[in-house]
Amino acid sequence: FPNETLVVIDYADRLPADGAFCLAAPMGFPMLRRWRKNPGRLEPSSFDPSHKPIFVEDKPRIIGCVRVSIRVH
């Protein structure tokens, strides 16, 4: 998400739909990523080529799903 974006997380929802954004902690620290089901991966929402998808073999640690994002101008 761009800087200065307000993101609302639903902590009760830990099962993101394919293509939904979620707050996950695959490596022990939280990050906002798009969940993709097949193959299981967390994709960055970034144009920076150094940001790569994180492929997950087991069930990823999902903290919550994004419900709303508001861009502050």
Account of the protein in words:
The protein has a single domain (5-71), classed as Umud Fragment, subunit A, CATH 2.10.109.10. The model has no long low-confidence stretch (mean pLDDT 93). A 6-stranded antiparallel sheet has the order 1-6-2-3-4-5, with no helix packed on it. It has no helices and 6 strands. It has strands at residues 5-10, 21-24, 31-36, 41-43, 54-55, 62-71. It has 73 residues and is an all-beta fold. Strand 3 and strand 4 (41-43) form a beta hairpin.
Outline of this structure?
This protein is mainly beta and 73 residues long.
Query: How much is the average pLDDT?
Result: 93
Q: What's the N-to-C terminus distance?
A: 14 Å
* Oligomeric state of shown chains: single chain
Can you identify the CATH superfamily?
Answer: Umud Fragment, subunit A
CATH architecture annotation: Ribbon
Q: Could you outline the blueprint of secondary structure elements for this entry?
A:
Blueprint: E1 5-10, E2 21-24, E3 31-36, E4 41-43, E5 54-55, E6 62-71
Antiparallel strand pairs: 1-6, 2-3, 2-6, 3-4, 4-5
